[in-house]
Write a structure and sequence with these properties.
It is a single chain. With 288 residues, the protein is of the alpha+beta class. The protein has three domains: 77 residues, no CATH class; 108 residues, Tetrahydropterin Synthase, Chain A, CATH 3.30.479.30; 60 residues. It is 46% helix and 22% strand. It has seven helices and ten strands. β3 and β4 form a beta hairpin. α1 runs antiparallel to α2, α4 packs across α5 and α6 crosses α7. The N and C termini lie far apart (97 Å).
Length: 288
């Protein structure tokens, strides 16, 4: 079932026509009453009742709103024209908002691709684009959007690990743009049958579950320490290499392989140590 345009007329011109008809009904009633006939005012009363019934066809359409029309249970179309409108008085009317809406899902506890329990939530921005599908394809499209969005969020979360741990693979924490696009596509696939377009979907909360949060924090800290140590050692080796080259080039001192090894060891201790080194003054020779 797809949306189609319902028949309606501009409200103001129609209202003027009914006012003229009301005036005619009053004139017929008065002339019938002056005729002193028992059925004289009947024509005016019937015309007045008919015009009063026609006024039931008036309705208002606000900006970014649709009116879904039904005739005796059958879908007749949707009116999106703003302002005062008039249509068949027998039509039943239902308002459907076409404005952009959003909601934040509850915090869901799921297992990521590595099997680690995580907490995740998302913000979904959506709007109705087909009023007929929204009203007649699902029972309650607003509740349908929320439940299906959370189901899609669960499905998406199981497709990625929380963290790639320097493997370069996409993860929930490091590949936000790719993950959000995947989430939007998952939700749109589920909500297409409800006449809803997903404008945007973004993760709003992401964390390890409480039972493993401390262990994962220690793992992240260990990884950061290892990475920092690797950079420190790499820099220290470059500095030692440069120091040996400059000492040799300038002829400051001549060192054999054993003393070069001792110097390299001392420099690496100084450059890589976490604490400040304590100098030792040698009052003897280089050999003692």
């Amino acid at each position: 079932m797809n949306e189609n345009q319902a028949w309606s007329l501009p409200g103001i011109p129609t209202l003027l026509v009914l006012i003229v008809g009301f005036a005619i009904a009053v004139a017929v009633f008065i002339s019938g009453a002056n005729a002193h006939s028992p059925n004289g005012p009947l024509g005016g009363m019937l015309l007045f009742g008919f015009i009063a019934f026609l006024t039931k066809g008036f309705f208002q359409v606000q900006p970014n709103q649709g009116k879904v029309m039904q005739l005796f249970g059958r879908y007749s179309g949707t009116v999106r024209d703003e302002g005062l409108r008039w249509t068949n008085p027998f039509y039943s009317k239902r308002d459907v908002s076409l404005r952009v809406r959003n909601f934040e899902s509850s915090k869901l506890k799921v297992n990521d691709n590595d099997g680690n329990p995580i907490e995740i939530a998302a913000v979904v921005v959506w709007q109705v684009v087909d009023t007929a599908e929204a009203v007649f394809q699902v029972d309650d499209y607003e509740n349908f959007v929320q439940i299906q969005s959370e189901a899609a969020l669960r499905q998406m979360a199981t497709s990625y690990p929380y963290d790639s741990h320097d493997t370069g693979a996409p993860s929930l924490r490091s590949h936000g743009k790719e993950v959000n696009q995947h989430l939007r596509d998952e939700i749109q696939e589920r909500l297409g049958k409800a006449g809803v377009d997903v404008v945007e979907a973004r993760i709003s909360h992401l964390a390890y579950a409480q039972e493993i949060a401390q262990a994962m924090l220690q793992r992240q800290q260990a990884g950061a320490i290892i990475a920092a140590r690797a950079r420190i050692v790499e820099g220290a080796v470059s500095m030692v290499e440069m120091a040996l080259e400059q000492l040799s080039a300038r002829g400051v001192v001549t060192l054999d392989e054993e003393r070069k090894a001792a110097m390299v060891s001392n420099l690496l201790v100084v450059l890589c140590g976490e604490r400040a080194t304590q100098p030792v003054v040698n009052t003897g020779t280089l050999h003692h």
